[in-house]
Specification:
This protein has 296 residues and is an alpha+beta fold. The chain has two domains: 2-95, Arc Repressor Mutant, subunit A, CATH 1.10.10; 97-278, GAF domain (Beta-Lactamase). It is built from ten helices and seven strands.
């Protein structure tokens, strides 16, 4: 028994050391987070403030990070920024992130919370294309399915892509859709109104289509953005409002959750909101729609 106790003592001491090491790593991560969250290189004192440690303690971490290439220091200003090794880590993390899985999981959570039909759309050869469908427990009365392609200017999904993609990509499809509308004898497309809707989507983060694509079906959609702010995919919720109800009380809640989920996935692949990118390491919370949802 004495031998057993003698062998156990070093293991317990090792456990204590390991716990202290983990705490040290957590502090180091806070230092790196301070640099990662800033739009520019930072002075030592500011890094310490953001990491919640003293400037002298931050300096010790930064010195070690410099030696390993994670951090660089500007010789002229003395400010610190992320180095080439941190860049390699970021690229590796993005390449290992499964955007489709993260987006699908977000779609599942929203649809199950509100019992709504949801779509995951990507930009395909012919425009916004459904690559995943999550059905609700009730029928919506549409023939939507995998592979469905949506128009740009008359669907919530299409409008999100239109608001975020370069004009050179969307212009040919817009021209085709306008020509089809003309041949069907429909009123000319109001491009000024389309431009206003795009501005709304970029500002508020979502698109709301009330019977634009299918007369008795509505949809709300929001983008998943990459680290450069480019649209990678769109999550769309399909629903049918009660007759005579122009602004159902739970619509704002649905939009808020849709924004929270899509922005959460976007953050996972490196996207930063404009306000967050402008702040020196101070994180802005996901934008939520608290006021009455506008119809764009």
């Amino acid at each position: 028994m004495a031998d057993d106790n003698a062998l156990a003592a070093p293991a317990e001491a090792g456990d204590v050391k390991e716990k202290k090491g983990i705490q040290s790593v957590e502090v180091g991560v806070r230092v790196i987070d301070a640099l990662a969250g800033a739009p520019r290189q930072l002075p030592l004192r500011e890094i310490g403030r953001l990491a919640g440690i003293s400037a002298s303690q931050a300096h010790r971490y930064l010195t070690s990070f410099q030696k390993s290439g994670v951090v660089v220091q500007d010789a002229a200003t003395g400010h610190y920024g992320l180095g080439t090794r941190a860049l390699r880590w970021g690229v590796a993390a993005m390449s290992q992130t499964d955007l489709f899985t993260l987006s699908s999981e977000a779609l599942d959570r929203i649809c199950e919370q509100f019992d709504m039909t949801g779509l995951l759309c990507v930009w395909g050869e012919y425009g916004p294309t459904c690559v995943r469908l999550k059905r609700s427990t009730f029928l919506t009365g549409t023939d939507l399915g995998l592979g469905s392609v949506f128009p740009l200017i008359s669907s919530a999904s299409g409008m999100v892509f239109l608001a975020h993609l370069p004009r050179a990509i969307t212009e040919p499809l817009i021209k085709t859709e306008r020509e089809r509308a003309r041949k069907r004898g429909e009123p000319p497309v109001d491009m000024a109104a389309i431009k206003q809707r795009c501005e709304f989507i970029r500002r508020e983060g979502y698109s709301l289509g009330l019977g634009h694509y299918v007369s008795n079906i509505s949809a709300m959609a929001a983008p998943i953005l990459d680290y450069q702010g480019n649209v990678s995919a769109v999550l769309t919720l399909i629903f049918r409002d009660d007759p005579g109800v122009s602004d159902p009380p739970d619509r704002a809640a649905r939009i808020a959750v849709l924004l929270e989920e899509t922005q959460g996935v976007s953050r996972s692949v490196g996207w930063k909101p404009t306000l967050e990118a402008d702040a020196a390491g101070e994180s802005a919370p996901p934008r939520r729609t608290r006021r009455r949802a506008a119809v764009n």
